[in-house]
C-alpha cells in the first residue's frame, strides 16, 4: 500500500475531542502495559464514528463507560469505534495496550535508551503508545501513574506536578503526576531510570520559586552545570525581553543517549539528546557550549511559543518553530555577539536552506502537502521560518513587534493556533499592512534580487534599480512578487557613510521591495558611492550586484555593518574560487589574486579589534558552502581549488599568521566571550598554518599543550585536513583517551569521515566496527555516516559511485531500524539535479535500489518519490 499524502486545505475540526486522560504505565523494557482512560466529548452531533490513531503495539481491548466494547474496526494505523447509538455526548473509553520498549528501535513512542526508558511523541509518536486522537488541536488534561522496579528505575517522571507516590510489596514503586495545563498528545512525556540529579531553583518575576532539575547519566553530574546556568539565563531573558514567565512549579530536563533529534519541549519535562546538555572544558568545545545554551533556551522558550499556544495542525509547524528559533537567536544575540550570531545563522541558511529550496523537497515554510510529518522538521520550516519572523520584526520594529506578541498571546493562550492568527495579531497590533508579506508563508524558493545602479554627477543623484525573481521550484511553478525588506547603506570611496536622502528629507534604510522592478533615488550624493546591500541579511534572498574587487575591499574595510564586512570577504572568496575552478577545468594553472591577498591582509592586521569577526571572516567557506553558488556542482573541482586557496593563503600570509597565532595564546580556559573569540581566531590561524612548513610542529604542540577540547579538536582537525605527519599519532591518542565516551568520540568519527584522503571510504567502513561505534545510536551514525555523506562531498560523490553505494547500503538497514534517521541521512543523495549526468545516473540507481525495498518506510518513500520525479 502506498503511503497517502495529507493536504493543508483539507483541515477539518475534529468531530470528537478528548478533555481528560488518565494514563497508567506498568513499565518494563520487555513488556509495558498501558491503560489509558479517555474522557471523550462529541463536538459534532452528527458524528457516529470515532477514529483513533494507533500502531506498533499489541491492542488488548477497549471498554466503553466501563463495559467491554467490541463494535470497532481495526486497521494497521487506527481503531474506529461505531458510536451510532451514542446516548450522551460525553463518555469514557478505557484502552489497554502492550508495548515492548526494548524492541523499539525507531526511538519514537516509548523506547529504551541505555538503561532507561523514555518517550518521544512529536510529531505522531503518541499513537505508538496507545490509541488516541493524536493531533495537535485535541487538547487534554493529563494525569499519569508510573509503576516500575524501584532499583532499576528509582526516578519515574512525567509532565506537571508530582502528586502522589508509594511502594509495592514486590519491589516496585509508583509515582503519580498531574499536569494542570491542557496540552496536545505530542507534548506528553515519560522517563524512567537511574540518574545523577542536579538541582537548583529560579525565582520568577512575580516571585514564585520554581524547582529546576537536570537528570544525567550516573557519573556525569559535573557536566550538567552549564546547562543549568543556561536554563536560568533563558528564564530570565524571556521575562525581560518578552515579559513571559514560567508557569509550573517544576522544570525538568533529562539527558538521554539515544535520541533522533536535538531535544524535545515536552511540558515541564524536556527530554534532550545528551549532546545538548553535557559540557565541561575537557569534553566540549566552545561551539558545543553555545549549542547547549541555545538548545536549552529554545526548548524553554517553547513553553509559551509551542506549548501554551500550540499548532492547530502540523502544516502550521513554523508557527511554533520559526518563532522559537527567532527567539533563541535573539537570546544568543543579546547575551553574546549579535554580529557573530547573525553571520553563523546566515552561513547555515545559505548552505542548507537555499539547497533545500533548490532541491526536490522544496516547500514553503507552511507546507501544503505532507506524507510523513517528521520529514518537515526542516531548515525551511525552522530557519527560513525564523527569517520570516525576523522580517516582520524589521518591518515593525521591536516595540510594535512586542505589542504584536502580547496580542497574539492574549488571543491564543491555551489554544491551537495558525500562522494566520500570528500574522493577523502582528498586523492589528502594529497597524502595519502585511497583506503582501503573507505570501512568504505560501511561496517556496529563494528569491533573487538583481541590483544595478546609476550615478548622475550633475544632479548628485544615485539610483538603485532592483528586480525580484523567484524561479519555479520542484513543488510550485507559479511564483508571485514578495514583500522584501532590503536594508541598504551607501559609502564614499573614503569609507564615509553617506546619508540617505530624497530631496532634503532623510529616508529609511529599509527599502520595501514589492514589485518586480523598482527604482530608488537618493539625493545629495557627492560622489559615486559603494552600495552596501542586504545589511544584516535583512531578507532570505540571493543578491546579485556586480561588485568590483575594489568596492568589496572598501566595504570590507569601512562598512559599519559587520555582516556586510564579512559578506564582502565571502564574495571575494567565492569569486576567487570560481575563477580558479574555471582555470582548473580548462587545465590551466590556478592563481592567487592580489585582491584577495590585500583583503585578507587588512582583516589580519585589524584582527585585534574584533578577533571573533576576524575568525569568521578569514575562515575559508566549506566545500558545501562554495557549492551553493553553482547550479551544477563539481565536487572534485571545488575540493581541489579550495585546497589550492588554502595553501596559497597560508603561504602568502604565513608571517602574519604566526604572529597572530602567538599573540592570541590564552593562559587558561574560560567560557567567556573575549576568550572564545581569541581562541576561535587563533585556531583559524592554526588551520592555515597547518598548510605551511611550520604545520607539523605547531599542530603537534598545540594538541599536546591543549587543556580543553576546543584546542584539542582544532589541532586534530588541522592535522587531518592538512594530512600532517603527526596526524595518525594524534588520532590514535584521542581514540585511546576517549573510547569510553561516545559523545566525545563523535567528534573523532566526524573527523575521520571528512579526511581528504583517497581511501576515506575504506576508513569509514572499517570504523563501523570500532568499539565506540553503535549502529543503534543516531549520534554515532550521524557522526560517521552522516558526516561522510554530507560533509565530504568529494568522497561521497566519487565518480565510481562507491560513496552512493555505501550510503544506500546503510540506508537499507536504517530503513527498518530507524526510518527517521534514515530520512535525514538520505538528503545528499536526493539532490541529484545539481550534478552532472554521470553522477545523476549513479545517484538515480541508488535511489531505485531503495525504492525497490518491500518495506520502504514512508519517510524515505516521500523523499525518493520526489527525487525521482
Ligand atoms: N519540537 C522538537 C522537534 C520534534 C521533531 C520530531 N520529528 C524539538 C524542537 O524543535 O524544539
Ligand atoms: Zn523547536
Assembly context of the chains: single chain
CATH architecture of the domain at 1-193: Sandwich
Average pLDDT for all residues: 98
- Give the count of helical stretches: 27
**By CATH's scheme, which homologous superfamily of the domain at 1-193 applies?**
tricorn interacting facor f3 domain
The count of DSSP E runs of length 2 or more, i.e. the number of strands, is 34
CATH class category label of the domain at 1-193: Mainly Beta
- Unreliable stretches (pLDDT < 50, length at least 5) are none
Helicity level:
40-55%
Alpha carbon gap, first and last residue: 19 Å
The amount of beta strand, in percent, is: 15-25%
Ligands bound, unique: (3S)-3,7-diaminoheptanoic acid, zinc ion
CATH topology of the domain at 1-193: Immunoglobulin-like
Radius of gyration: 28 Å
Report the principal-axis shape: globular
Query: Strand count, sense and closure of the main sheet?
Result: 8 strands, mixed
In what order do the strands lie side by side in the largest sheet? 6-5-9-3-2-12-15-14
- SSE-based structural type: alpha+beta
Structure description:
- The chain is an alpha+beta fold and about 850 residues long.
- It is built from 27 helices and 34 strands.
- Among the domains are: about 1-195, tricorn interacting facor f3 domain (Immunoglobulin-like); about 550-690, Peptidase M1, alanyl aminopeptidase, C-terminal domain (Zincin-like fold); about 740-869, Zincin-like fold (Alpha Horseshoe).
- The strands form nine sheets. It has an eight-stranded mixed sheet with strand order 6-5-9-3-2-12-15-14, with no helix packed on it.
- The longest helix has 29 residues, at about 635-665.
- The model has no long low-confidence stretch (mean pLDDT about 100).
- The structure holds (3S)-3,7-diaminoheptanoic acid and zinc ion (ZN).
